[in-house]
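Design job #97: recover the sequence.
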């Protein structure tokens, strides 16, 4: 089974060369606030890139990412879920989240997700229970809309969050088609919270599988590479066609996800896109046609506001001059 490593295509900053010590030098320089000839935003992105590259293979005696498989995925088998919420409790425990959730905010979605509840069980008519969590898209829209790189897709695949980079714009919440990211509205230092597929715990070798997978008593959730999980999903559908809807949710929707589903019911209520319309097309491809106009709109609004300010200020200046005995309004008029 492959393990997470530093991608060969990741460029090393020329200021420190391409030797093995170069990457370490960049990390040390960033830790001391080195400029490295980048703008503030470039330095921010470079710092994040360096942190994510450190999620590569661990050094001897340091644990590290050799425990994290490359291209990980989860397969949720809805037909096996009994709604016990052991996965919810395990997620809270491994991520240090409070056991009790705060009272639901007005207008909150009925899926139960919140800033303190990253995994939830949705109850369906007929007694069916369906788990909901971050889908970890192959081409995540939340990453594409984040202007500061606080959300990033790691080299291994999971989409993770860096609070130190977040500016609280909440564009990720608007960009996610599944309504996954949630904001800590009641916190004095709020963050955006969501499932990160236990990335740090897996990278450090503290666990071998995401906590929700290990906790499931009915093996309704499986963990492995995406290729393995897709193969297993199709095997189940083919072997028991009377049990499953002939579709693997997450295989192609919006370009594909790492959290896959097989079920005996239609899962469109989980905000899955219509596969006939969006199959194979990442959401950032669809949103870019609109998002690329945003900088121009901001610039246009700024220019308009500047013009309005100049006109108002010019009028006020003339009024002040007149009150102070400035030039007469009519040529030849005595002061």
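Job complete. Output follows.
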């Amino acid at each position: 089974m492959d393990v997470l490593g530093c991608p060969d295509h990741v460029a090393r900053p020329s200021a420190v060369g391409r030797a093995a010590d170069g990457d370490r030098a960049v990390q040390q320089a960033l830790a001391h606030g080195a400029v490295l000839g980048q703008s503030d935003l470039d330095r921010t992105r470079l710092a994040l890139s360096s942190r994510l590259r450190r999620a590569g293979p661990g050094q001897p005696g340091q644990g590290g990412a050799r425990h994290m498989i490359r291209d990980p995925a989860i397969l949720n088998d809805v037909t096996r879920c009994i709604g016990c919420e052991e996965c919810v409790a395990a997620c809270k425990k491994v991520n240090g989240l409070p056991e009790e959730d705060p009272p639901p905010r007005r207008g909150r979605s009925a899926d139960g997700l919140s800033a303190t509840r990253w995994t939830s069980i949705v109850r369906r008519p007929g007694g069916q229970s369906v788990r909901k969590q971050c889908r970890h898209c192959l081409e995540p829209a939340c990453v594409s809309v984040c202007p500061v790189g606080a959300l990033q897709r790691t080299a291994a695949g999971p989409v993770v969050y860096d609070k130190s980079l977040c500016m609280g714009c909440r564009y990720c919440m608007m960009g996610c088609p599944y309504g996954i990211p949630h904001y800590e509205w009641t916190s004095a230092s709020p963050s955006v919270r969501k499932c990160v597929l236990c990335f740090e715990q897996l990278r450090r070798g503290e666990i071998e599988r995401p906590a929700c997978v290990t906790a499931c008593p009915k093996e309704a959730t499986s963990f492995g590479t995406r290729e393995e999980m897709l193969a297993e999903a199709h095997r189940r559908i083919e072997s028991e066609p009377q049990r499953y809807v002939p579709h693997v949710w997450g295989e192609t929707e919006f370009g594909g996800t790492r959290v896959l589903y097989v079920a005996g019911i239609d899962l469109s209520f989980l905000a899955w896109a219509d596969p006939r319309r969006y199959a194979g097309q990442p959401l950032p491809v669809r949103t870019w046609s609109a998002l690329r106009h945003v900088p121009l709109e901001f610039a246009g609004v700024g220019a308009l506001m500047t013009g309005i300010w100049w006109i108002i200020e010019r009028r006020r200046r003339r009024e002040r001059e007149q009150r102070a005995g400035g030039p007469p309004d009519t040529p030849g008029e005595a002061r």
